[in-house]
## 1
Amino acid sequence: MAMTMSQKILASHAGKDKVVAGELIMADLDLVLGNDVTSPVAIKEFEKAGCNCVFNKDKIALVMDHFTPNKDIKAAEQTKIVREFANAKDITHYYDVGEMGVEHALLPEKGLVVAGDLVIGADSHTCTYGALGAFSTGVGSTDMAVGMAYGKAWFKVPSAIKFNLTGKLQKWVSGKDVILHIIGKIGVDGALYKSMEFTGDGVKNLTIDDRFTICNMAIEAGAKNGIFPVDEITLEYIKNHSTKKPVIFVADKDAVYDEVYNIDLSKIEPTVAFPHLPSNTRTFDKIGEIKIDQVVIGSCTNGRYSDFEAAAKILKGKKVAKGVRVLIIPATQKIFLDMATNGLTKIFVDAGCAVSTPTCGPCLGGHMGILAKGERSLATTNRNFVGRMGHPESEVYLCSPEVAAASAITGKITSPVGL
Amino acid sequence: MKITGKVIKYGDNVDTDVIIPARYLNTSDPKELASHCMEDIDKTFVKRVQKGDIMVGGYNFGCGSSREHAPIAIKESGIACVIAKSFARIFYRNSINTGLAIVEYDGDINEGDMVEVNFDTGVIKNLTTGVEGTFPPFPEFLKNIIGKGGLLPSMKNN
Ligand code: SF4
């Protein structure tokens, strides 16, 4: 039987010629990821099971990003557990304050994932690396513990939904609008257990950062993974970031898909997800006047250099609205430094924004921008569940960096079009 | 294995942020996690839950983050089994890997009903309404993991 791109990567890592949807397999991993929230639980399991050695000290990445720089004593205890483990096992890719970044921006930047890899991470947004033509998916801490010990994980081979992309995005529209549009269409469980495979002529018109953003939110449609075909743009990115050799898998022409959606990129408009589900999307004809208290630009979804470039273009020479707190959180140290070097930081500070060291921070309501009862935040993050950014009666609206920057100036949710 | 318990019911899309809010993830202590379980949508849960109760949800139960803290918090709170119309996939595998019993079943169950779940026969009996239904048993591969007491022990034996 013909295979999808995701199935081919799984088959090759399970040492099989063929796999079919629904089959349960054990597969070899190229990378196992954990963070300061999920790793302590995994380490406890790892030690409880009497494991001594990790399967490969170069194929484990531990990134302290959620509550760091440590927000309180408990968070400090958690990172300490991971730091001591990383030291004891001599883990090559341990990233702590000063060199860390938000994991899903950091790993590709450090060249730890390339096309053809099979990656698990004890973090749901591990699906981000599908942008590079890798199969990557989020798992729990026990899976991570087993991954660290044996370099293996079990998978139920997923079927797939095909998204056939055509056309080109309009000005002020970016990857975030594409994925919010898709989730609005298929719902938060529209791709449950499945792969979202993106393909078509329109792919070449999406930057690698657009693709990272799109794959990042595949989980918000319930998907197991999101994946893009490997093209020149992918290979260029990998060449500039990694010494690892990419392996290119191509879906069979006659591969079977559960559903096919045709998406014309040129028709997509700036889109905002209203509380409390990422699928609760609206375009500006249906948004009305919504005042905001806070704007967050950052996270593994939209905390890359191009995101801040887009925001800076809009904020240059402007001031943020009175009474609105605007947080700029570059996702990695490199992005932080590039922003400073290229004058972006000055634009943001002149406009009245706060610029922070990399952290997940407010994205999960951890620290650095928690909302009070009744407050509203517009954010370039990926989740707007009840209480996600603070008080259970606060609200989070999700959008692109372009919409976030335009709204920072007006103090209400505003389209960047025609600004 | 057969269990009987009283139902505590929620709706669709119960996400991991309401099962255990991220602000409490600075600890991995099961007792502490359980003491905040469900509090953002149901402040009464931790007070009224009794050992052996059954949690019932709608579609896409456990969506959101990969935090294993979610099934851990539910299990530690005393819940014997979660029944939902469908589960988000990471929550599903985390439950198997950590030994929280979960069942996919779309029959009608109400708050407060007494329900009996037979894991060997795959039969669910609603003792309050008298309605009976079945659920698909786990495939052998997963039964093996559960039978060996979780993923880590099962790997060790191989
Ligand atoms: S930025 Fe937000 S979504 Fe991304 S890894 Fe951090 S907490 Fe998770």
Note: Strands of chain B lie at 2-9, 54-57, 81-84, 102-104, 114-118, 123-126, 132-134.
## 2
Amino acid sequence: MTVIRLENVTKTFGAVRAVEKLSFEVKKGEITGFLGANGAGKTTTIKMLLGFIRPDAGKVLINGKDPVLPLTRKSIGFMPEMAYYYPYLKVYELLDLYGGLCGMTKKTIGARAKMLVAKVGLSGTENRQLKTFSKGMLQRIGIAQAFLHDPDVYILDEPFTGLDPLARIQFRDLLQEEKRSGKTILFSSHELSEAELICDNVIILKEGKVAWRGTTAQVAGDGSQNLERVFLNIIGNDSWEGVAI
Amino acid sequence: MSIAILQISALIKVSLLELYRRKDLIVVLILGAILLLPIAFVTPFGISGSGTYFNEIALIMVWIFSIFIALGVSSRIFPNEFEKRTIYPLLAKPAGRGVILTGRYLGALTAAISALCIFYAAYILLCGIKQGVWFSEVLLQAFILHAGLIAVMVAIGMTGSLLMTPSANITLSLLVAFGMLFFGNRLPELAQGQGAIAKIALYSANALAPHIEFFDMRQRLVHDWPAVSWLVCVVVMLYAAVYSWVCLLIADLLLRRKRF
């Protein structure tokens, strides 16, 4: 079953064509890495997937529905690239806000928040305002708020940025756990080794188009390849013209 | 409880928490005391009746600062959300932009009215100490109408914040507010002696700009004049509600068209 679908999506900003005739699908229960160099169109695509901006042409669908509709976003958990949250709030107050926006009751928020705060390793920080948190701790809060309403689809923008090795392992385990329970995950990243470790599929963007897509097994090939080599081969190849696979 | 109410109340709660944690209300309390202390303790040159002037000055200061606080709070909310990128997690939740705008508006309004309550509490306290009058119908009307004005100013500030920078927005809104406070009721009269273009401009300003003078009960408070009819108050509050609603409708359109 297809959960995320993009069909011939194009988005331009003035003279800049950020995304051009982009098409791909992500199926239920898959973890897909969304890779590309800076300016490849990853964030623009993610913004369209969340309904922040509309495509100039083409279709963006989450569970068959337009993400511009608030109800569609009920099934999406989003973690932004930069973890900026309200500095005067405390952990549970922030989760209260996001839970409230998801229409969750106070009781449900309380139970989920407690479990997630422990899972992301922030127990004991409940009485501190977010302004005192480090970048890595804010990133952990970002994970907790994305998972709070138990969505079916996760769209994560550079989720590993700022996380220490232990937090990376915990987060990787959390993603695998969600995958096992049938959740669909799409994340953009520059961390190729992380992507190789946890992804079922990889999509590499170049200049707003799909330059390569395939499974992580395809990446390994005969064993002499790895994602870094594939990535460098595609991104570093100036003579590249169009979709390779 | 409907989901929209849950969403709006979550946003209001955050505004109040921020107001409390940033200690803004303490600043307002100090400001209120500084503005209003002269009423209670100063009788200049021992001239009886001169307290009226202090009363008038204190009230105009309350007006200026309450408008400034309303605009200051409302005109920074969205620019801060955009600049600090806190808008992204908000927009990603299943809340429409209209709900986010309403929640943010009501949050800013609650914060600005909290400041107004502090000003009026200080005013009542000091008038009570000095004149022995703790409550009057005029005072109640003055507070209610002032709250209506704050609702309008917050809506103007929020709409302007989606069009221009906070400093430009505050400057322009203050110009409109004080221009209308002092000259609003003279605009039709002024228009009559003008050329065609100036006439159109003045009549347009009269129709479009907020009539701040409708909310002004200062003279009645200072000179102990009788209260106005409650029907007048209801009509003025309806004007405030409609004006704020139109501003928020424009803000909603701007927010929907905003590129993130």
Note: Chain B touches chain A at residues 3, 6-7, 9-11, 13-14, 17-18, 21-22, 84-86, 88-96, 99, 259-260 (CB under 8 Å).
